[in-house]
C-alpha cells in the first residue's frame, strides 16, 4: 500500500515514493538513474544516461511555446544515508520506510532523501503531464552531488540548449538562492606505526547524541561536532596522563555532514585507570555545560581489549595536530548579512594500520579565502610530517546583478502566494556554480521546499511546501514564452 497515497499533487508524491523504494546513497545511484531513464522510455522522450549515472531527458514544447527558449530543470539523484544506532536496514540495498502525518514526511530510523528526491519527483511529474503549458524542457538529473558534485563534474553539457536553469535543491519555501560557496575536500594522512600493548588498561570512549547537520546550511547554528570534541577529550586526558596511548578513533562519514558521534579507544597505565575515569566523568559535565544547545550530548566509556596502539610520542603528535585544526565558521560575509563566507568542517577521522587519516571540508564564496584555508590545513599537517591530497574542488557561484529568471520567479511567487520571496546567497555548495561555469550566459536560480534536519535521521519535509513548489515551477514554465 502506498504510504503517500492521497497527498496532492498525486503525481509528485507517487514519484517520490517510487524513488524512495530504491537505494540511492551517494556512490550507489545506478538504481535511481535507471528508474528515471525507464520513465523517459515509457513516455517516449529522448533521454541520455551516462557512465556516471547522470540522466538528461528532453521534452518538446507544448502547443504555443514552440518558439520559446528551452529551460533546464535540475536536481540530484543521490542522498546522504544516515540511520539510527538500532536501525538494521542496509541502505546500500534497501529503500526507505516512509512515514507521514499529512503535514510532514519522514523516514523511520533513517534520513529521508527529500534532499534532493523532491526535485526529481517534481520534474518527473512535470514531464508526464501533457496538460501543462511549457517551453522545451531539458531535465537534468545528476548523480553523487553530496560527495563533491561528482556527477555534475562528469556531465557533458554540450547538447544542452537552455540558458535558463531552475535548480530545485534548496531548503526553504519562498527563498531563492542566487549565489553559493565553492568548496574543496582535503584528505590528510599522518603516518604512525602501531606497537603492542604492554599490559595497560584500555577503554573505549563514546561521544554521541549530537544533533549534527549539514556543513553548509547548519555550520553557523552553533552545533557541536563530535570529531573535534573527541580530540579535545583525548588531548585533555593526555595532559592529565602523559603516558596515554591512542588505540583507535573513528568519527564521521560524509564530507558535508557535521559529525554527530565519535568513538575512540585508549590505553593508560593500570595505576592511572581511576584517574582517567574521574577525569572523563568530570569532563563530560564540562562539555554539557559548554554545549547547552546539545541536550542529548553524552560522553561514556567502558572497558576495551585492543591489541596494539600508537606510541606515546605518536599519540602526542597526532593529538597535537588534530587539536590545532580549524573547525566551524571562519569568516562572515560583508555583502550578505548573516551569510557564512568561509568555513571548515572536520568531517572524518580514523586510525588505520599505517596511521591517522582525516578529512577537512572547506567552503567559501571567496576563492582566495578557500585557498587560504587550504594553506592553513596543509601547513599544519605537513609541519607534523603528514600529507594532504585535494579532491572535489568545485567553483562558487557568483551573484549576478541582472537576472531575468530572478525577476520572473519572484513575480510568479508573489502572484501565487501573496508574499514576497526572499533572495539569498547560500554557504552550501550548489551545482549551479558548475553549470554557470560551463554554459556561457546561463541564468540560474535555486529554490526548494521546507526541509528540516537534512542529512540526518531527523530529516523531514513539509507536504504543503512541496505542493507550493510544484505550483511555482509550473507557473514559471507557463510564463516562459
UniProtKB/TrEMBL annotation:
<protein>
    <recommendedName>
        <fullName>Cytosol non-specific dipeptidase</fullName>
        <ecNumber>3.4.13.18</ecNumber>
    </recommendedName>
</protein>
<comment type="similarity">
    <text>Belongs to the peptidase M20C family.</text>
</comment>
<keyword id="KW-0378">Hydrolase</keyword>
<keyword id="KW-0862">Zinc</keyword>
<keyword id="KW-0479">Metal-binding</keyword>
<dbReference type="Pfam" id="PF07687">
    <property type="entry name" value="M20_dimer"/>
</dbReference>
<dbReference type="InterPro" id="IPR002933">
    <property type="entry name" value="Peptidase_M20"/>
</dbReference>
<dbReference type="InterPro" id="IPR011650">
    <property type="entry name" value="Peptidase_M20_dimer"/>
</dbReference>
<keyword id="KW-0482">Metalloprotease</keyword>
<dbReference type="GO" id="GO:0046872">
    <property type="term" value="F:metal ion binding"/>
</dbReference>
<dbReference type="GO" id="GO:0006508">
    <property type="term" value="P:proteolysis"/>
</dbReference>
<dbReference type="Pfam" id="PF01546">
    <property type="entry name" value="Peptidase_M20"/>
</dbReference>
<dbReference type="GO" id="GO:0005829">
    <property type="term" value="C:cytosol"/>
</dbReference>
<keyword id="KW-0224">Dipeptidase</keyword>
<keyword id="KW-0170">Cobalt</keyword>
<dbReference type="InterPro" id="IPR001160">
    <property type="entry name" value="Peptidase_M20C"/>
</dbReference>
<dbReference type="GO" id="GO:0070573">
    <property type="term" value="F:metallodipeptidase activity"/>
</dbReference>
<feature type="domain" description="Peptidase M20 dimerisation">
    <location>
        <begin position="209"/>
        <end position="290"/>
    </location>
</feature>
<keyword id="KW-0645">Protease</keyword>
